[in-house]
Amino acid sequence: MRIFFRRIFRLSLLLPWLIYMGAISVPVTLRRNRWSAIAGMAKMTKLWGRGLLRIFNIRLHVKGDLAGYDGGLVVSNHMGYVDIFVHAAVFGLRFAPKKEIRSWPVLGWYTSFIHPVWVDRSSRIKSQKTLEEFRETLEHKVPLIIYPEGTSTDGNTVLPFKTSSFELAASGNFDIQPILTVYRVPEGADTPCWFGDMELLPHLWRLVGIPSIDAEVYILPKITADGRTRKELAEVTCEAIRGAHEKHVQKKEPSEYV
Question: Which CATH class is domain 2-250?
Answer without folding.
Answer: alpha beta
